Amino acid sequence: MNGIKPKVLIVDDEKGLRNGTQRLLQRQGYDVDTAEDGASGIQLGIKNDYDLAILDLKMPDIDGIEVLKEIKKVRPNTICFIATAFASFDTAIEATKLGAQSYIPKPFTTEELIKHLETGYEKRLLLVEADRLKREREARMLEIAYEKSRLNTIVNSIVDGVIVVNKTGELVLFNPASLKYFELNEIIIGENILGILPASVSELINKFIVPVKFENVSYSTSLELKPNRELCVEVTCSAVPHPDGSLAGVVIIINNTTELKKIEFVKSQFVSMVAHELKAPVAAVLGFMNLILDDSINISPEKEKEYIARSTKRLQALIEMVNDLLDISRMEIKKKEREIKELRIEEILKTTLEFLELELKKKGVSTNLNIAPGLPVIKADYNEINRLFTNIISNAMKYNKTNGSIDISVSYSGNYLITKISDTGIGMKPDEKEKLFQEFYRVKNDQTRNIPGTGLGLSIVKRIVESYSGKIEVESEFGKGTTFIIYLPAKL
Amino acid sequence: MDTIKKKILLVDDDLDLLEQNKILLESKGYSVVTADNMKDAWDTFKKEKPDVCVLDLIMEEHDTGFVLSHRIKRDEYGKTIPVFLLTSATYVTGMKFGAATGEEQEWINCDGWFDKPIQIDELTTKLEDTLLKYQQLKNK
Prior knowledge:
The structure holds two protein chains of two kinds.
Chain A: E1 7-11, H1 15-27, E2 31-35, H2 38-47, E3 52-56, H3 64-74, E4 79-84, H4 89-97, E5 100-105, H5 110-157, E6 161-166, E7 171-174, H6 176-181, H7 199-209, E8 218-226, E9 231-241, E10 247-256, H8 258-293, H9 301-333, E11 340-343, H10 345-355, H11 357-363, E12 366-371, E13 378-381, H12 382-398, E14 405-413, E15 416-423, H13 430-434, H14 457-467, E16 471-477, E17 481-489
Parallel strand pairs in A: 1-2, 1-3, 3-4, 4-5, 12-14
Antiparallel strand pairs in A: 6-7, 6-10, 8-9, 9-10, 11-13, 14-15, 15-17, 16-17
Chain B: E1 7-11, H1 15-27, E2 31-35, H2 38-48, E3 52-56, H3 64-74, E4 83-87, H4 102-108, E5 112-115, H5 120-139
Parallel strand pairs in B: 1-2, 1-3, 3-4, 4-5
Helix pairs in contact in B: 2-3
């Protein structure tokens, strides 16, 4: 018996038979419990998981059939035998119907009993094994269900849209993001969705589905789902192969590329603007050269000299613009080597004014520097701060009236050093003021026509100020003058 | 070419290009009047009644040329003459004011575009062809 003692319950009101059978079976290697009536038989039979039970049919309190029913309710795998001296065909059938293994007529020989019990025990072992397998299977099913729900949770929480179709285009899996991107209200698992998806996406899926042999590659397409770059996506379709290499289905990933497209657009606009601004002076110089070289056109030597001078001026402006562009690009990639030091704004302003002294005199513009006492320092790169004030003060000079003036004051308030630079120049209209800091924007009118400039100076100023967490404001009245107010954080 | 010189209104805010193109067009036998801003261009157009207008696209504002073309083409005299626009090719792509839709093109209503810098022979050929078409229309 493999060392394991089968557990047997004997329920019989006849003491002699009960104990006799117990001793007999114990000798045969069984572990035997006994009960002297139906009630205690039920109690034991329910409490312990017996392999086998021998139940007397006729007992004073509860009969064997009733005991069988009660035990089977709780212990369906306990193999029960009904033993009786009053064997009748009907009770035998009833007992079997209720789940009794068989019917043992009393009196019985040892061999008869053992034979019954051995057969019963074999059945018991089969039942237990079947039960174990069933439980294992259930556990695995549960695990699979859990795994599936975990997969669903993961797929549903992906920001990208995910759709999986089988090799005929029927929907296998999708997440809410995919519905949102394609503005679908509801799609049903098992539904063929090739007709619902955007045509270009279905085309990509068909590249896998239609051929007899598919290639294990990915196809991508960019879609503008809402016009003017409001919603752009990149859709990538990849094959899902079976282990044998044949096509199982196609997974479709929808990635939101709106921000990228917006940045790309701004970039291409900027490049386009730069190209235009660079082209203008080159075209002008080329035009002059062609005129001078063209033998069919008669140009006086004086005119020729004038054209060369004008060409030189355009080229000079072009160089300045290229330098400004390089500065902007350096600032953008932050490669510009900054040397952050404690700086005194008042000293930088004095240096700037000295640097511009000659030009200021030439234009007859007077300056007035008003510095509050005891100013804190700022921490910044000298060249950048110098560039900032040079750009603004030279603008204040260029766009000033002859014999005008520039007032510069520096004060300290709310942890900011506030520099005001006011001119008595031509001023700006409100719409011009708005565009002032845009790249290449220059106020164009009769008064500004002959003032050279790249249209990048103030854009650079703004970038410098903002890179130090500062702020720049502008007040202007057309015909009266302009004031720039620069806030730079003080180093305490 | 007619014995009477045809008069072109040339508008560009780049004074260098304006002068160069004036010289080139004059060398081809045209009479050229110029303006370098929207207001002067309109005044010159009304006063001079040119046979053709050639306008730069970008002057005071990005679309000044469009606006000017639109105004000229709505004028009683202006609608009987060809109007051309000059543009840097870079602006046709990537810029928000490109005349992309038919509606915009109808609004601008010009007779053609030329890339800058001007290829003078290409320009004059197109000018003459268009002038001829307008002449034939008038004769009908």
